[in-house]
Each structure stands twice: as structure tokens, then as C-alpha cells.
């Protein structure tokens, strides 16, 4: 995309949204719940990004994704703050690469709290790898017009049946099998 005078860029005020100012450990601790809680709006945003090839068309959906993320963290803070803080501190302090392996006990306590107080169950292993169909309310983009169809010649004609077909000059490829 080339920027010229004809391109309308959005105003800076329309782009400002409340940011999700959280650490990596905090985001990783809540990642399965975040992925499941905001799955529909996130899929819609990614679909817009890939179909439109224009980030200006997806600004409103991006705001909705951010609002969904903030809403989840507000829910966690109001219902399971202590359990979540213990879990995220464990993820932050137990290893240098934010490994979750050392924090399974605090994860179990947090998962129990999420299930009891927010009625959210942790997605099972492989949930985000499964293929799912996303039904979008927006219309698909029009197909791009192709300036010219490539001319592909017909396939190479084979030998006519009346021609002799002698055996291969040096034997077949699998000569060692028949010996």
C-alpha cells in the first residue's frame, strides 16, 4: 500500500484506547482464559486483518479486542485476585523463561477459583490447535480481478498406441528387485 495525499488516515484521537499494561508473566498466566473468553472477537479481528489488507478497516474491531481483554482482567481482579497474583508471581519468579511447569499447584488453585467464581473452565490441551469454523457477520471481500489468465498449454501428448514400446535401455529403475 502506497501512501499518497488521497489516503485518509484516521485521527490520532480515534486510535487511542486504554492499553493493557500488564507484564509478560501476567499475560501468560491468563492466556488460556483470555484466548477462550475473547475468541469470537479476536477471530473476527484477524479475519478483517487478513481479508482487507488495510489496517484502517479493522481499528474498531481492535478496540473491541482490547476492551474484551480489559473486561476479563477486571473480572479476574474482582473475583480471583489473590489466586491469580500468586500464580503470576510464581510464573514470573520460578524460571527465567516463564515456564509454567514449576507452578502447577498455584495454577490448580487459580483454575478452581475461575471455575467456581467466574464459571470459566481452563481449555483442555490442544483446544487452540483444533480446526473450528468461524461464522462472520461481515460480508466477504470481493474477489480481486485477475488482469489476465495465464495460458497453460495442453499436456504433452503421449505416444500413440500403434508405436512400439521397447523396454528401457538400461533396465528399469528397480532392477535390483527382479534379480
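Sequence proposed for the structure above (179 residues):
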Amino acid at each position: 500500500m502506497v501512501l499518497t495525499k488521497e489516503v485518509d488516515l484516521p485521527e490520532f484521537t480515534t486510535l487511542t484506547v486504554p492499553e493493557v499494561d500488564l507484564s509478560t508473566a501476567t499475560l501468560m498466566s491468563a492466556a488460556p482464559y483470555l484466548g477462550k473468553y475473547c475468541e469470537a472477537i479476536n477471530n473476527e479481528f484477524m479475519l478483517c486483518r487478513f481479508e482487507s489488507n488495510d489496517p484502517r478497516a479493522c481499528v474498531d474491531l481492535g478496540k473491541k479486542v482490547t476492551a474484551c481483554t480489559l473486561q476479563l482482567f477486571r473480572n479476574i481482579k474482582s473475583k480471583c485476585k489473590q489466586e491469580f497474583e500468586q500464580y503470576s508471581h510464581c510464573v514470573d519468579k520460578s524460571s527465567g523463561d516463564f515456564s509454567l511447569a514449576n507452578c502447577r499447584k498455584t495454577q490448580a488453585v487459580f483454575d478452581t477459583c475461575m471455575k467456581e467464581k467466574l464459571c470459566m473452565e481452563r481449555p483442555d490441551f490442544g483446544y487452540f490447535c483444533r480446526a473450528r469454523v468461524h461464522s462472520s457477520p461481515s460480508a466477504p471481500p470481493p474477489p480481486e480481478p485477475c488482469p489476465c489468465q495465464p495460458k497453460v498449454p495442453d499436456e504433452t501428448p503421449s505416444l500413440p498406441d500403434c508405436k512400439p514400446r521397447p523396454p528401457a535401455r538400461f533396465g528399469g529403475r528397480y532392477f535390483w528387485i527382479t534379480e
